[in-house]
Amino acid sequence: MTHRLTAAGAVTASVLVLCAAVPYLAPALDEPFYVIVFARIMIWAIAAVSLNLIMGYGGMISFGHAVYLGIGGYAVAILGFHDITSAWVQLPVAIGLSAVVALVFGVICLRTRGIYFIMITLALAQMVYFLGVSAERYGSDDGLNILWRSDFGTRHFDLEDSVVMYYTIFAVLLGCLLVKWRIVFSRFGMVLRASRSNDTRVQAVGVPTFRYRLVAFVIAGVMCGLAGFLQANLERFVSPDMMNWHRSGELILMTVLGGTSTLFGPVVGAVIFLMLSEILSTVTIHWHLVFGPFLVLVVLFARGGVMGLLGSRDTHD
Amino acid sequence: MDYVLLIEQLLNGFQLGIILFLMAAGLTLVFGIMDLVNLAHGSLFMIGAFVGGTLALATGSFLLGAVLMVPAMFVIGILIETIALRTLYRRSHLDQVLATFGLILFFNEATRLIWGPEGLVIPLPDFLEGTVALGAGITYPLYRVVIIGIGLLVALGLYLLVAKTRFGMLVRAGASNRTMAGALGVNIPVLFTLVFGIGAVLAGLAGLIITPITQAAIGMGEDVLILAFVVIVIGGIGSVRGAFIAAVLTGVIDTMGRSFLDLLLLLVLPANAAEAAGPALSSMLIYILMAGILFFRPQGLFPPRGATAVQ
Amino acid sequence: MTKDARGADLVAQGLNKSFGGLQAATDLSVSARRGEIHAVIGPNGAGKTTFVHMLSGFLRPDSGKIVFQGHDVTDLSPAARVQRGLARSFQITSVFREFTVLENVILPVQSRLGHSFRFWRPVLSDPTVLEPARALLEEVGLGDRAGVVAGHLAHGEQRQLEIAIALATKPSFLLLDEPMAGMGPDENRALIDFLGALKTDHGMLLVEHDLDAVFALADRITVLVYGRVMASGRPAEIRKDAQVRDAYLGETQV
Questions:
Q1: How much is the pTM?
Q2: What ipTM was estimated for this complex?
Q3: Which CATH architecture group holds C3-85+171-252?
C-alpha cells in the first residue's frame, strides 16, 4: 500500500468528513432535511459494505442481501410491539437472528456456484419477504410502526436524540469499514480473496474453502443486520418492502457503482445512488426510464466503478 | 376433507405449474446455453401481457390478439437480445445481473409511460366463459382448462422441437457443452438469438393467458420470475423436461399448501397456533422444497450431461 | 496387496470411473514409492487427468481404493489430502492471476501453518508467513519476481510458480499434471533438473506428454490406454514392450 494521496483517497476522506459534518452543515445551509438523507445514505452504505465483503472479495453474488436489513429491522419492531424496548435485548436478537439465518442460508446456497448461487439467494430472500407479507399480526404489507427507539437504559446514550442517532450510525459505518479492512488483508481475507480467484486451487493447497466462505457469509449477514437495526430505529417503521428483491438489486448496484473490490467503493456508490435518485426523481417521475439504461452503460463501460476509475485497487486486477 | 375442493385445488396448482413452465422453459435454455443471468425475462412476461392485450383490444378478438402476439414477442425478444444482451455473454455474472436489473427498471417505467400506472384489463371472450363438468360432480372454469390444454400442447411441441429436430439437437449440445457445439460448426450467435426469441414468445404467452384472470400490471412478471428460478433450480439448469416436472411440482405444492396446510396443522397444533402458522409456513413451502432438493442434489433433479464433472 | 504395493507411498487399487457412458478408468492400479518418480503416460484421452483428479480428491472413483502412506484416503476431501502431505499441480496453469507471486505462495504457507481463522492481523506484515514464503521463492528461483502480479509472468515462470504453490504446502508426495505443458526446450531442461532434485525429499507421480522428459526423469512408468493400465515397469522395459510401441510409442518420436 502506498501512502501518497490518491484521487480515491481524497474522495474517501471528503465523503467521511462530509458525513461527519452534515448535522452542523445542513441546518447552517437551511436544509435540515439533509440530516435524515445522510443518515439513510450511511445505513445503505453499511449494508453495501457488508455485501461487498462477500461479493467483491469472496465472489459470492448474493441477490438476497436485503433480507438481513429486514431481519435486523423486524427484531426491533416485533420486540417493541411486545413492549420489549431494551436495546440490550433487541441488539443481541438482531445480531443473533441475522447470524443464524445467514448460517442456514449459507449452508444451502454455498454448495452451489454461479447462476445457481444467484438464483438461490434470491429465492431464499423472497421466502422471508413472503413470510413478512403473510405475518398479519405484524402488519403484513403495511408494516409495523415503532413507538420507541431501542433503549440503552442510560440518559447519556439516547437514540431518541437525533444527533445521537446520527452519530451512532456514523460510528457503526466507521466500525464496519475498519472491520472489513482488517478482515480483507488478514489470513482469513487471503483465503476469501483467493477462493474468488480460483476456488479449486485453494482447496488444492489444503484449505477447505466452504467453511471460510460460510463464515464470511455470516459476518456479512450480521453487518447488514446491524444496518437493519439502525434503519428500523431511524425510520421508526419496518415493512416487508425492506426485504423486497429490488432492495437487494439496489445494494448490488451501489456496490458496483462505487467499485467492487475496493474498501470504500460501496460507500461512494451509496452516496451517488441515493443522491442521484433524490435529484432525478424531482426532475421527472419517470426517472427509471433514464436510470435503467444508465446502469447498463455503467456495466458496459465503467468497469471498476467510480473508485476503479479513480485508480483505487486493493487487489491487483 | 371435501374431495371436490381437493381436485379443484389440484387443478389450480397444475394450472399455476403450466404458467411457471412457460416462463421456466425459455429461461432454463437461456441459462443453460448462454450461461446468461437474465432477470429481464420477467419483463417479457409483462410485455407479452400488455402487447398481446393491446392487440386483443385493437382487433376486438382475444384469440387474434394472442395469435398476433407470437410474432410480436419473437421480434421483441430478438431485438432485446441483439441490442442489449448479446454484449453481455462474455461478461461476468455480476455484470449480467446488474445490466438486466437495469433493463427491468427501464421496461417497468416504459410500460408505465405507455399504458399508464393502472395497467390493462382484458375481458375474457364470451365463448371462454363458463365452466365444464369433469364428472363426479366436479365443475371447473373452462378458461383454466384451456390454459392447461395450451400449456400441455406447448410442452409437447417443445419436447418434439428439442428431442426430434436438428435445431433441438444443437440446443441440447449447447446446453451441455458450449465448446462442443461451437466445434460442430454451429452458428452460435444465430442459435442464441433464435432460442432467446422462442423464450420471449413462451414468456409472453404465459403473461397474456394469465391476464384475463388477473390483469396486466406493471412488474407482474417479477414474482413469477422468482418462482421460475425456483423451478429451474429444482429441475436443473438447461433441462426442459426438468423444468416441466419441477414447474408442475412447484405449482401443485404451492397451491395445495395455501389451501390445506392450515387444516393439516390443525391435526397437530391448537387452533390459534395453526391459524397463525398456516399462511406463514405455506408461503415458505416451495422454498423449503427447493432447499431440500438442493441439499441432496445440488445440480437439480435433471442436470444436463457433463454438468457433474469437476468445475 | 500386490508385491508392488509393499513399501509404496501412494497406492491406487482397482479404480473405476465412468462419465455417463464413457469409461475413463477401468480397474486402475498404480503404486508409487517414496524417493522415486513414477510417470504416467498415454495417448490423449487415456484418462490421465481423470486419474490425477481421483488421486487428489477432485473426483470420486465409482469403486476402488486410494491409500496414502498406509491410510485409506478415498473418502477424504482434496484439502484433507493436502494436509496429509499429498499435493498436486495443475495441467492448465492455475496460479492466482491477480495476486503477486509472493501472495501466491503465502496462501499455501498459511494453509500449512494451521487454520486461517485469523481476522485481524494483515498477512503481509506477519513474518511467520512471509519468511517461509520468501525462502521458498528463492529456492525455486522466483525470488526477484516476488512483487510481480502472477498474471504478468511469462508462461515458463507461471509453470514454475504452479509447482512452487504445491511445494509451499511442504508435501511429502507430489502429483504433477503435465508440468512441462507449453514450455520451450531451455525451460524444459531447467525444469527437468529441478524436478530431479526434488526426488530426494518427495515421492512424485508425474503425468506428462513430453516423453524425453519422462525417460530422463522416471524411475517407473505406467502406460494408460483408454483408462486401463497397458504396461508398467522400468523405463527400459517400457521402451522394449512391443505392445506399448505399437499402441503409443510407435506413433511418436521415440
A1: 0.92
A2: 0.89
A3: 3-Layer(aba) Sandwich (3.40)
